[in-house]
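The following block was generated as part of the benchmark described in Methods. Ligand: S-adenosylmethionine.
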Amino acid sequence: MAYDFDKIARDYDRMNHLMTLGLDKCWRKRAVKELPAGGSRRSVLDVACGTGDMCLLLAKQGAAVTGVDLSEEMLAIARKKVASAKFQFSTFNFQISDAERLPFPDASFDAVTCAFGVRNFVHLERGLAEMIRVLKPGGTMAILEMATPDSRLLRPLYDLYAGKIIPWLGQHLAGSREAYTYLPASISRFPKGDAFLRILQNAGAQVRNCRQRKLTFGVCRLYLASR
Ligand SMILES: C[S@@+](CC[C@H](N)C(=O)[O-])C[C@H]1O[C@@H](n2cnc3c(N)ncnc32)[C@H](O)[C@@H]1O
């Protein structure tokens, strides 16, 4: 069953920025930078859009953005942010939808993004296959995901931070030790690097040029693919 983000929506942004020391913003910017510029008519789907930070960045570049997520509470925050950012609301379309059953025809979007969402899919391959299906031929897909660092020197520090400090912060600042124990546990279980790229490659016959960029010592990975 998918983790219920409704429970932590209120604290999500604050905790996310705190736990990543603000780096989540840089990682999203980097992902957007890797997408080919396509002018104002470019349509982008942001899957598992959550509170909409990626959608806002994409819209600043002039894209028409569709954001989908399973959590009504996360989407409510995304809608509020868009309203207060004084964008023309028509640039955005937020809707409740499961990444594993996207309600769009084949080849609908020039680009598809997903920031820190794929780790939460119940069936990873199905979600990736859907993202590829709705991408136009020639389009680009950018996926951000957290990972454990490769470096043996960094690993003990990371384990201390992820295993002890994050759950402690979750308990004391967001009132949920459980949610912030799930986070590092789900990161360490999730395939990273080449293992993830193999799954992505196998998710659709049309996918090509799968590649990754290691960000911040590899604790965040940017996976890119084309159709
Ligand atoms: C860690 S948050 C990431 C939110 C946002 N993309 C960001 O950059 O901060 C993960 C999001 O994935 C959503 N999610 C999980 N499984 C999903 C699915 N199958 N379909 C759509 N959204 C999903 C959750 O509701 C949650 O909002």
